[in-house]
Amino acid sequence: MLMHTKMAPESATINSVFGIGLQAELQNRLHETSSLHYLGAHEMVFMEGDDNENVYEVVEGVVILSKLTADGRRQVTGFVYPGQLFGVSLGDSSGYTAETVTAVRLRRYPYQSLDQSMDLYPSLGRRFLRWTSNELVAAQNQMLLLGRKSAMEKLASFLLHLSERSEAQDRDPARLFVPMTRGDIADYLGLTTETVSRTISRFRQLGIIELRERGYIHVCDFDRLTDFAEDEGCLH
Amino acid sequence: MLMHTKMAPESATINSVFGIGLQAELQNRLHETSSLHYLGAHEMVFMEGDDNENVYEVVEGVVILSKLTADGRRQVTGFVYPGQLFGVSLGDSSGYTAETVTAVRLRRYPYQSLDQSMDLYPSLGRRFLRWTSNELVAAQNQMLLLGRKSAMEKLASFLLHLSERSEAQDRDPARLFVPMTRGDIADYLGLTTETVSRTISRFRQLGIIELRERGYIHVCDFDRLTDFAEDEGCLH
DNA sequence: CGCCATGTTGATCTAATTCAATAACTGTGG
DNA sequence: CCACAGTTATTGAATTAGATCAACATGGCG
User: Fold this and answer.
1) Which CATH superfamily is domain B7-146 in?
2) CA–CA gap between residue A166 and residue A177 (Å, rounded)
3) A28 touches strand C (CB under 7 A)
4) In CA terms, which of A194, B19, B52, B184 is 20 to 30 Å from B45?
5) Beta-carbon separation of B234 and A132 below 8 A
6) CATH topology for B149-229?
7) Interface residue of B52, B66, B85, B90 to substitute, partner A, most A CBs within 10 Å
8) Cα distance between residue B114 and residue B128, in whole Å
9) How far apart are CA B76 and CA B138, in angstroms?
10) Tens digits of per-residue pLDDT, A39-87?
11) Could you tell me the distance in Å between the CA of residue A226 and the C1' of nucleotide D22?
């Protein structure tokens, strides 16, 4: 599979959880026990119910995490971008499914060896703890979005989030890479495909965004988009 | 304030995060740096936006955690029961508000001293990591609930959750202690007070639950309640 | 080209919200 | 102990945001 060419435009790993700041010794140790994996678009990494013994780092591409109800309704719990982890299911995990959205380069760390490394290098445990804490904050924000925001507010928040991500990766914050389908976005925001499509159309009609290239959304008016997001904050 | 009497019926700390399993030495150390606090019902512990420098353990009573949108809509992100922690906002926290639901006994641990203890006792860091991981799993389940479940499914899931909690505290799993208001429940489940009230009424009419004592809900038919919960699981 | 997945748009429909009225319960002070 | 004020809960009627159903467009790819 020649996915290097396809992945090229979306590379650049900047703020890795396992990135700069770790002792070289630890970095080597982690590197040794890990392995690189390449997957095409729309492939499964692991399924809800599997007992996954690994932590994955996305090196390149986008991964989608989701959970299902018994009758097949899906909730997307997150999109994972380069430098971020998934698969950390310590504790009495209930599990989720991880699939690729784009072609993806992954680094796999067996959980057992990370566990051992944590004994030797407390800084690793710290970093993990910090990471899960941040995930928890993100999860709480998503609960606010799912439970209390309108379709327009949801979409606006989502687009602004993509923009931050874009900026964090030193790329144009107005040119949003949106490789996931409308259905994926819908399942992330607690909406239907149709509503996502309609809401995007409305933002387009309002001149807030433009759909120039397929797979990208261009933000024209950040101010009005921010107004719609009606975001977090009793920052009195 | 004589709240000992009022709190008596809801005591018993069983599965504390800082409970059995920690070295005695560490336990002492934690105990020394911590302090006990008593609060009445409906008091604020800290507000969204405050930079909170502490981790709290609920010793007795129930605490409610919530976030607000700019225009005042509220999302309850969780209820905290005896033995559980809140206030862990490492990382680039955005914060939330913590208020008491009932009269509450809290143990406060300054974050800084926990941090130091983690250096000396890696087991503490482990325990924290395990705890945040479990919180993350709970958060993902809540996202599924908020994004994809109907009002009846939400209520059924909530009641079953309370039942598990009740059982975990060695109390009757059919007699649910529900000290929070319908509004609190609504803000937790992404509904309105009226819908929560109506849905409870419907379960009552169906003979699935009974409202005998104020502040409690009695489950009569777990099987049908479980059917309604339409719960997590592609446990193929 | 023609197939299949994805996306858009329109016309209904409905679950839950909103608005409104009343009831029940809590606590407070005379 | 009771009245009355305030919060909390219930129930009904009207409204609506978003879902569902349906038709068609687009676009990538063998």
Assistant:
1) Jelly Rolls (2.60.120.10)
2) 8
3) no
4) B19
5) no
6) Arc Repressor Mutant, subunit A (1.10.10)
7) B90
8) 10
9) 13
10) 999 999 999 888 888 999 999 999 999 999 999 999 999 999 999 999 8
11) 34
